[in-house]
């Protein structure tokens, strides 16, 4: 597989073309950003950790019947993926209130939600990724029909079921996470992007210690150690 020119550079990854038009290579970066990149940092080795974590999670999801863009891990920080057109919606799935939900609605941080909440945010940095409803998503042409939004919600809940149970066995609480989806050349909706401590919140079940990007967002220190701990528990 030959790596060709860069297609796109995001906050956490670079995307490269390959000699196969249906495949791309995703390079996981060490950069860390928060609050729409108002806060920037870097953690040497984070890209490798995230590539390994995301690879393991995509393999687990595929094993459980969830279709993803993952093809194979090519090197420490390089993942081969199917080429998809990204749907500009960030699907956030929440089990426990924290972050922007607590801030927006005043629900106490750490309170278990009575049911799993799925939210849509419009993926637009200039607008600061605003929370949107189904009608907004249709008006913004994010998808063609409300059925596609139902598919995103359904897959979001399925991913939650698989991951919540998996991480529970690793003594971790899956607090919330963000998913992105893309459409492949045949029109299939595939889970895309990454699933890492950059895009999820994990708390230790016993100590409630935060083991994710909140350590960077909130200046808690030991960012890399937290990501290493997540990989270690996934592999054990
Ligand atoms: P929030 O509470 O800040 O809205 O975050 C909800 C979840 O989504 C959390 O697991 C972190 C993740 N997330 C991203 O992956 N990217 C983002 O840009 C934001 C704001 C959150």
Question: How would you sum up this structure, described in words?
Answer:
This protein is an alpha+beta fold and 236 residues long. The chain has 2 domains: 3-82, Phosphorylase Kinase, domain 1 (2-Layer Sandwich), CATH 3.30.200.20; 85-222, ATP-grasp fold, B domain (D-amino Acid Aminotransferase, Chain A, domain 1, 2-Layer Sandwich), CATH 3.30.470. 31% of the residues lie in helices and 35% in strands. It has 6 helices and 14 strands. The protein has helices at residues 46-63, 99-105, 134-139, 146-169, 214-217, 223-235, and strands spanning 3-9, 13-18, 23-28, 31-34, 39-42, 70-75, 78-82, 85-86, 89-96, 112-122, 131-132, 172-183, 189-192, 200-204. Strands 8, 9, 10, 11, 12, 13 and 14 form a 7-stranded antiparallel beta sheet that branches. It has a 5-stranded antiparallel beta sheet with strand order 1-2-3-7-6. A hairpin with a 3-residue loop joins β1 and β2 (13-18). α1 (46-63) packs parallel to α6. The chain is globular, with a radius of gyration of 17 Å. The model has no long low-confidence stretch (mean pLDDT 98). It binds thymidine-5'-phosphate. Thymidine-5'-phosphate (TMP) is lined by residues 92, 99-101, 129, 176-178, 199-201. It catalyses: 5-amino-1-(5-phospho-D-ribosyl)imidazole-4-carboxylate + L-aspartate + ATP = (2S)-2-[5-amino-1-(5-phospho-beta-D-ribosyl)imidazole-4-carboxamido]succinate + ADP + phosphate + 2 H(+). Pathway: Purine metabolism; IMP biosynthesis via de novo pathway; 5-amino-1-(5-phospho-D-ribosyl)imidazole-4-carboxamide from 5-amino-1-(5-phospho-D-ribosyl)imidazole-4-carboxylate: step 1/2. Its EC number is 6.3.2.6. GO terms for molecular function: ATP binding; phosphoribosylaminoimidazolesuccinocarboxamide synthase activity. Belongs to the SAICAR synthetase family.
């Amino acid at each position: 597989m030959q790596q060709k020119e860069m297609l796109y550079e995001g906050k956490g990854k670079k995307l490269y073309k390959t000699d196969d038009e249906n495949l791309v290579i995703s390079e996981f970066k060490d950069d860390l950003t928060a609050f729409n990149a108002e806060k920037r940092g870097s953690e040497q080795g984070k890209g490798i950790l995230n590539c390994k974590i995301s690879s393991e999670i995509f393999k687990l999801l595929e094993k459980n019947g969830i279709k993803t863009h993952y093809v194979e891990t090519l090197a420490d920080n390089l993942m081969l993926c199917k080429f998809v057109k990204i749907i500009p919606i960030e699907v956030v799935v929440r089990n426990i209130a924290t972050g922007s939900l607590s801030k927006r609605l005043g629900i106490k941080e750490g309170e278990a939600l009575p049911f799993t909440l799925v939210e849509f945010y419009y993926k637009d940095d200039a607008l600061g990724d605003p929370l949107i409803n189904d009608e907004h998503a249709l008006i913004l042409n994010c998808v063609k029909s409300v059925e596609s939004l139902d598919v995103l919600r359904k897959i979001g809940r399925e991913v939650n079921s698989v991951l919540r149970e998996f991480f529970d066995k690793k003594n971790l609480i899956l607090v919330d996470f963000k998913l992105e989806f893309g459409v492949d050349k045949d029109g299939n909706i595939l889970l895309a992007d990454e699933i890492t401590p950059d895009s999820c919140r994990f708390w230790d079940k016993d100590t409630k210690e935060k083991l994710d990007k909140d350590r960077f967002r909130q200046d808690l220190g030991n960012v890399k150690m937290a990501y290493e701990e997540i990989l270690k528990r996934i592999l054990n």
